[in-house]
Amino acid sequence: MKKLIQDKTYFLKDMLEGMKLTNPDVDIIEDTVVVRSEKKKQGVALVSGGGSGHEPAHAGYVAQGMLDAAVCGEVFTSPTPDKVLAAIKAVDNGDGVLLIVKNYAGDVMNFEMAQEMAQMEDIAVEMVVVADDIAIEDVEKRRGVAGTVLVHKYAGYLSEQGVALIDLKEKVETLLTGVRSIGMALTPPLVPTTGKYGFDIEEDEMEIGIGIHGERGITRTAVENAENIAQRLVKRLVAEVDASEVIVMVNGMGGTPLSELHIMTKYVSEQLVSHGKKVTHWLVGDYMTALDMQGFSITLAPHDDSVLMALKAQTESRYFNS
Questions:
Q1: Spatial contact of 164 and 187, defined as CB atoms under 8 Å apart
Q2: Is 39 found in the same domain as 157?
Q3: Which of 29, 88, 164, 198 is placed for a possible disulfide with 188 were both Cys, Cβ 3.0 to 4.6 Å?
Q4: What pTM was computed for the model?
């Protein structure tokens, strides 16, 4: 296995230690919980997290204007409830805590358990679940993918504006009613903790509707050019997004060159125009990855002026290019 690692057992530990060396604005507590080194004195505290392998999510968004803590599990593995609880207790300042969770059974279960434990200690904790992946037809089972990062930014902005916990949760859930994503891949990720690829695929094939944990897509087809790929994905998205104006994220999966993301952006734009959609803001880059998977996802987010302002607002996260 060709990976720049010391030992697969220490993948998470070594990664977090290296990240801490380059970012004095965060601290590591409980071995796997990343928190802001200067605790926010007021405003709803935001906690997210999940398995590692999605960098810069989620630890890269622990910064002014975004998250207060990220709970890091092992690669593609949910963090345990005790770690989530430690994060909640570390960042709570009396104004309440909002948990931002992707819709995977393990994540939802463990964050819910931590929420209940924190509430027993009289900490006000609410939770939102992101389920933006339209590759899954059953709405209840839709996965949380790149749209989660938009929630981190929007909620971070609202917190800094002094929006109270329940109101903040409601505003985030309103945003989530319209956010839709879908992804594709040319290659699977090589998972360092197992030494195995997420799935097998031939050189001339591609997967449509992949997940971010190495899950294969819903459809496998012959590799197509950029325009045809954009056409496939945008057609699926616009069928579920009525808004005429949208924020668009073109998100790399970790192994896709920025040049190719920009190529896809061109053809995604053309397809959106052909469907009568106006793009009010672009986000292009690696936001929610799947290790070294070569592929990308598109997220459409209908919005009002406050959402657009929030996504353009300043943040000290070096990984959120607004």
A1: no
A2: yes
A3: 198
A4: 0.97
Asked if 43 and 157 sit in the same domain, the reply is yes
Pick the catalytic residue from 54, 58, 152, 303: 54
Cis peptide before 79 (omega within 30 of 0): no
Per-residue pLDDT, averaged over 105-118, amounts to 98
pLDDT tens-digit map of 148-188: 999 999 999 999 999 999 999 999 999 999 999 999 999 99
Q: Percentages helix, strand, coil for the chain, rounded to the nearest 5?
A: 35, 25, 40
58 catalytic? Reply is no
Residues 187 and 162 in one domain: no
β-pair partners for 205: 222
213 a catalytic residue: yes
Res 257: pLDDT? 98
Average pLDDT over residues 50-60: 98
Which residue type does 212 have?
Answer: I
Q: What is the pLDDT of residue 1?
A: 87
Answer yes or no: is 117 within a domain. yes
- For residue 252, count CB atoms less than 10 angstroms from its CB and return exposed for 0-12, middle for 13-18, buried for 19 or more: buried
Q: Distance (Å, rounded) from C-alpha 159 to C-alpha 290? A: 29
Residues 41 and 153 in one domain: yes
Cβ atoms of residues 188 and 295 within 8 Å = no
Q: Which of 152, 213, 262, 303 is catalytic?
A: 213
Give the DSSP H/E element, type plus range, for residue 60.
Answer: none
Q: Quote the domain boundaries for residue 277.
A: 180-312
> Same domain for 147 and 25?
yes
Q: Can you give the CATH number for the domain in which 201 is found?
A: 3.30.1180.20
What is the CB neighbour count within 10 angstroms for residue 94?
9
How confident is the model over 185-218, as pLDDT tens digits?
999 999 999 999 999 999 999 999 999 999 999 9
Query: What average pLDDT does the segment 102-128 reach?
Result: 98
Query: 22 and 58: one domain?
Result: yes
Specify the number of domains making up the chain: 2
The answer to whether position 88 is within a domain reads yes
